[in-house]
Structures are given as structure tokens and as C-alpha cells.
Specification:
Order of helices and strands: HEEEEE
Radius of gyration: 11 Å
Structural class: mainly beta
Largest sheet: 5 strands, antiparallel
Shape: globular
Number of strands: 5
Strand order of the largest sheet: 1-2-3-4-5
């Protein structure tokens, strides 16, 4: 997991995203299909790590603490 913040791009932050809860490899994650790309949120061990890490097409794209308001409500884990 990431130990420092990697900011979300403004494009990602302002995009409307609908997340669904899933279990992958034994952990709770959030998944979304965004324009044909797989987006995945993995929950961090906050405050030692950023609260959320965003993976796009399998690569780390951002690590952050504040849930974007344009994204669907944060589902319970």
C-alpha cells in the first residue's frame, strides 16, 4: 500500500463514478467501469497510509484521503 498521497487529477475528481462493493483476493474493494477502463479503490490503513488508493487498468493512479463529491456515495465496507 502507498505511504504518501498521490493527488487525484481534476478530471478524475470531477468525473461522475458509480462504485460497487466487491471482494477481491480476500479484501473489500470498490470497483467501477469508467469509459471501458477498470477502476479499483483499495482501502488504506489510515492514518498511516492514505485512506484510498485508486488503480486504473491495474496501475496505481492516486492515493488520497478525501472522497470526491462527484463520485457516488461511499458504500459501506
Amino acid at each position: 500500500m502507498q505511504d504518501r498521497d498521490i493527488p487525484l487529477t481534476e478530471s478524475a475528481r470531477s468525473r461522475e463514478v458509480r462504485w460497487v462493493s466487491e471482494r477481491r483476493e480476500g479484501q473489500s474493494v470498490l470497483a467501477a467501469d469508467v469509459d471501458g477502463d477498470d477502476w479499483l479503490i483499495i482501502f488504506g490503513d489510515f492514518p498511516a497510509e492514505p485512506a484510498y488508493s485508486l488503480y486504473v487498468r491495474g496501475s496505481l493512479s492516486a492515493a488520497f484521503n478525501d472522497w470526491p463529491s462527484a463520485w457516488s456515495s461511499l458504500p459501506s465496507r
